[in-house]
Amino acid sequence: MVVTLIIVCEVGFWVLLAAGLALRYLAGMRRTGAAVLLLEPLLELVLLTVTAIDLKNGATADWKHGLAAVYIGYTVAYGHYTITWVDGHVAHRFAGGPRPVKPPRYGLARARHEGKLWLRTVLMAVVAATLLQCAIWYVGDGDIGSLRSWQAVTLRAVVLHGVIALTYLLWPKKDPGRDATADGEAAGPRQKTLR
After folding, report:
1. Which of 117, 120, 121, 177 could bridge across to 77 with cysteines, CB 3.0–4.6 Å?
2. Alpha-carbon dihedral sign for residues 58, 62, 63, 69
3. What is the mean pLDDT of the segment spanning 161-184?
């Protein structure tokens, strides 16, 4: 039941997002569209409640409960970011809004961008690990190995994403357009023209 609810919540996220944006930009009902978008957190609240009830009714804590906690953590950390990104693209495409700013591709600006995304992953892991720890305390002496393994998964995600983000800082990608200009100027002294 929990896995089905996770799938329903994910589908519901995208359905609410599409409905909210359609109301905002296609139907011109900006406030109603915003209200629909504000319903998104209710999906996670429903998932959290059903997961807790499932455990309270004696279900063995397993991978489904861990996945639910990670899904909630991911939505808390990346949900608003995703909605804002999609909203910007829809506003540009259908409402004459400005072209969305693309993330930087080169240099320290890209490293900062990746660092901010990594901080979102840290938030995801903190939320998920906290929910998992609450579930561990709630279960008590029962089988909690699966919940502990999901806590390890969130830690591995933070470390892996951190290493990837760090590579952008240690080895920043250079702008090829800028390098070509710099190379052209540094190619050597200008030749004198003969008259």
Report:
1. 120
2. positive
3. 80
